[in-house]
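Page 42, continued from yesterday. The earlier attempt failed because a stray header line got pasted into the input along with the sequence. Redoing it now with the clean sequence only.
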Amino acid sequence: MKSLAIDVAHLAKSFAGHKVVDDVSLTVERGEIYGFLGPNGSGKTTSIRLMCGLLTPDAGSGTCLGYDIRRESAAIKRHVGYMTQRFSFWEDLSIRENLEFVARLYEIPNRRSVVEQAIVKLGLTGRAKQLAGTLSGGWKQRLALAACMLHEPELLLLDEPTAGVDPTARREFWDELHGLAAQGISVLVSTHYMDEAERCHKLAYIAYGKLLAKGTAREIVAAQGLTTLVLHGSNLLDISAKLAKRPEVAQTVMFGSALHISGKDSARLMAVVQEETHEAYALEPIETSLEDVFIYLMQQAKDNFGVGA
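This time it went through. Structure tokens are written below.
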């Protein structure tokens, strides 16, 4: 049985009187990529920081990498790599200079050798002298990951790391993450991309401070018990508006030229849709996707007017 990288219970945190994290309990195994989904302002980033001792909870307890998140936060920080959503390195320094500076901050022995190994490992050799400010989003991402890994952390915290990065760079980044996980490094990552969420070993869905669902992507989809139909035809926006008023319909969502219609009771859902359409429309059941469930959960959540990400 794998040991736990994170084991926290009943975490809570408030800012300015608003509860941003409300009774969150979670376990993460070593070598596991754990994704955090949720709308903006839902408490994803705050939850991750609480779990790793970067913020002190108002309530709750737990351990990160075997250290107590309240009493041993300094020890935790020495074993964690943190990659923020916003590029936070020096744009007027080269890739190599940025990495050497970070290595000095961590007081890493043999830093020149360590930096050179990081440059080679992440394919930065040809750009090592390039100024960070001139890099594309994908190359900045590689630099940030290389800096996170210099001190050989056991846990990576990634806050929407691929925002604004092209699909090819995103795929390469995730291939790298899976390689790190295979080495036993745990990864906590917040994301809005469904394809990235499906590449995580497990997921947590957080909305307005509440943990609404957790488990594998398949488990989260199954737990909602939704049946989904796809409708093709004309005037789908009008059909969507009509169906949204029916109690048998949990949600309607446009996906390109098709309409996804979801509900809890498959027989009643099919009957209602057939009632509102006719033979000119093509209707068939499909497997409920993680994105269907993500939208459904977001609609069910109640905004607590909190702050935080």
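Notes: The CA atoms of residues 13 and 58 lie 5 Å apart.
Reminder to self: strip header lines before submitting.
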